[in-house]
Amino acid sequence: MIAIIEGIGRTVIGTTRHIKSVAGLFFNTIFWIVVGPFKGKFVKRRSIFEQMVFMGVKSIIITFFVALFTGIVIAMQSAYQLSKLGATIYVAAMVSVSMARELGPVLTALVVAGRVGAAITAELGTMKVSEQIEALETIALNPVRFLVVPRFLGLLIMLPCLTVFSDIVGIVGGFLVGVYNLNLNPYRYMDVSFEFMVWKDVWTGILKSVSFAIIISMIGCYMGLNTKGGAEGVGKSTTVSVVTSFILIILFDCVLTGIFYFSNI
Amino acid sequence: MDKEIAIKVDNVVKRFGNRTILNGISLEVYKGETFVIMGGSGCGKSTLLRHMIGAIRPDLGKISLLGRDITCLNEDDMDKIKKRIGMSFQGSALFDSMTVGENVALPLREHTKLEESVINIVVKMKLELVGLRGFEDLMPSQLSGGMKKRVGLARAIVMDPEIVFYDEPTAGLDPIVAGVIDKLILDLSQKLSITSVVVTHDMGSVFRIADRIAMLYEGRVVELGTKEEIKNSKNGMIRQFITGDPDGPIKFFQQKDDYLEQLTK
User: Fold this and answer.
1) CB within 8 Å: A135 and B75
2) Which of residues 69-128 of A touch B (CB under 8 A)?
3) Which residues of B sit within 8 Å Cβ distance of A?
4) Other Cβ atoms closer than 10 A to A73
5) What are the chain A neighbours of B107 within 8 Å (beta carbons)?
6) Cross-chain residue pair A139–B155, CB shorter than 8 Å
7) What is the pLDDT of residue A154?
8) Contacts of A44 (CB under 8 A, 6+ apart)
9) Closest Cα in chain B, distance from residue A234 (Å)
10) Domains (ranges, CATH) in chain B?
11) What is the pLDDT of residue A265?
């Protein structure tokens, strides 16, 4: 019995410490973005662009396929239900609204967490275990400014872009089903798509993706910088990083959806 | 003779958990000398080196570097000190996303306002010093261990530091490369009057380069003296360390009766 309580206590204390450290890393990152330039310590634009290419441009293909097939699947599933009511035209609204509000941001974030989050942790973790982080510190380069900030900013810019891209591709997927399978009028389809999608659907989705970008980059960097114990340690950190990001993305999605649903913004 | 002190370590204690790694170490390193810290694996010599460069803060005691107490400096002041020191890491710690030239140029690019053409010249000069001119465009993964170590050394001295720290500079190198590195350390201290602090247990190298030697055992300085004093020391530990005798005051094996007990437990 005591062992169970001890176990719970240890987990809680450990988790609190991790949360504190991640929050610390986040504030440190913000500090370097906001205060750094005033101290004459800029973040290299080149390294931000390098990260943006890696995180954003090179994620386009996988995002494209995931969004396209998701759009197709929603269209088919909702057509299956809506055809009983003779309202297949509303497939268009179904696809556009669910892509913008929910599936665009979440699926893109999950794909990017798997691709980019894992890469961040593996790279920083390898740098940690091979003394490269320490070497940076000895030449008076702050690892947060030098490594974390470009990754943070890169993802903060690219994930919302990818999300908008995936919204559009998802709608195109639905369009293909609507026009070629359900024989709906293409003009009517597009019309209904945008008639039911309000501005709020889009910006709440983008806001979600911004918070997911913070989660993925912070968890990825934190796990990487805290890697211990050689190649095995890097593997462990990477796994924990991706799993934690996945859970937090779904959790925050739920919380944010609740906030947007209950508050009539 | 009154010598100027470059590094002063005063009664430093460090514990990790229950293990006491450094147990009240005091020593002084004079300007321009080559100071060797030797001792068996796990005796705390690398930890002591990390204290000297400000990577770890001691639990107790003071360390002053170039006249400043680094145990209570803020980050900005510490960065100023760090720009005046260089460190060559055991595993070379080259940034493997950058070429050899970029690695060596990094401190200059980040901390000085030198023209790119000047930086290129300095990089070539430093690489020439370590015998690797013409390797600028290779990636670290294309180099052998010894070459990496020499690039790491070039990066450590690129800012013309006043003190250079070496963590096992000759470990894992063939005798000729080890000799080259020893000669390089000597050249730097004799020609440029750089203070060198070398952590090593390569006895051949110790007696080639050292002005003064400190022997560490279980977190304490057991003997400190000039090369001749150490060579002629009557201290059993030092004799054992120099000759590499498995029997002596430094115990490698646990007590015999313990062993039987543990086997049959």
Assistant:
1) no
2) 123, 127
3) 50, 53, 55, 75, 78-80, 82-83, 85-87, 89-91, 93-97, 106-107, 110-111, 152, 155, 159
4) 16
5) 139-141
6) yes
7) 95
8) A150
9) 16
10) 1-84+163-172+194-265 (3.40.50.300)
11) 62
Task: Calculate the average pLDDT of chain A.
Answer: 92
Which residues have C-beta within 8 Å of that of residue A108, sequence separation ≥ 6?
A63, A66, A67, A159, A162, A163, A166, A209
Give A200's pLDDT tier (boundaries 50, 70, 90). confident
Comparing A230 with A64, the larger pLDDT belongs to A64
Within an 8 Å CB–CB cutoff, is residue A181 touching chain B? no
Pull the structure tokens for residue B250: 């430094």
Q: Do A131 and B111 touch (CB under 8 A)?
A: no
* Domain assignment of residue A120, yes or no: yes
What does the alpha-carbon distance between residue B86 and residue B196 come to, in Å, rounded to a whole number?
10
Q: Taking CB atoms and an 8 Å limit, are A142 and B111 in contact across chains? A: no
d(CA B145, CA B159): 23
Q: Measure CB to CB from residue A140 to each of B91, B111, B152 and give the nearest one.
A: B111
Q: Does A131 touch chain B (CB under 8 A)?
A: yes
The pLDDT value recorded for residue B242 is 81
DSSP line for A23-75: HHHHHHHHHHHHTGGGGT-PPPHHHHHHHHHHHTGGGHHHHHHHHHHHHHHHH
A50 touches chain B (CB under 8 A): no
Domain-embedded: residue A38: no
Q: Which domain holds residue A213?
A: 44-262
Alpha-carbon Rg for chain A, nearest whole angstrom, is 21
Chain segment A165-182, per-residue pLDDT in tens: 999 999 999 999 999 988
Q: Quick check: A134 and B79 CB within 8 A?
A: no
* Residue where the block lists tokens 């169970």: A4
Residue A77 lies in a domain: yes
Round to whole Å and give the CA distance between A223 and A129. 12
A204 lies in a domain?
yes
Q: Do A135 and B87 touch (CB under 8 A)?
A: yes
Identify the pLDDT of residue B253: 59
Low-confidence ranges of chain B (pLDDT < 50): 1
Q: What number of CA atoms fall less than 13 Å from residue B122's CA on the CB side?
A: 21
Tens digits of residue pLDDT in B18-65: 888 888 888 889 988 899 998 877 788 888 888 888 888 888 888 988
Alpha carbon separation from B201 to A3, A233, B42, B133 (Å, rounded): 45, 28, 11, 30
- Residue in chain B nearest A133 by alpha carbon: B93
Global pTM value: 0.88
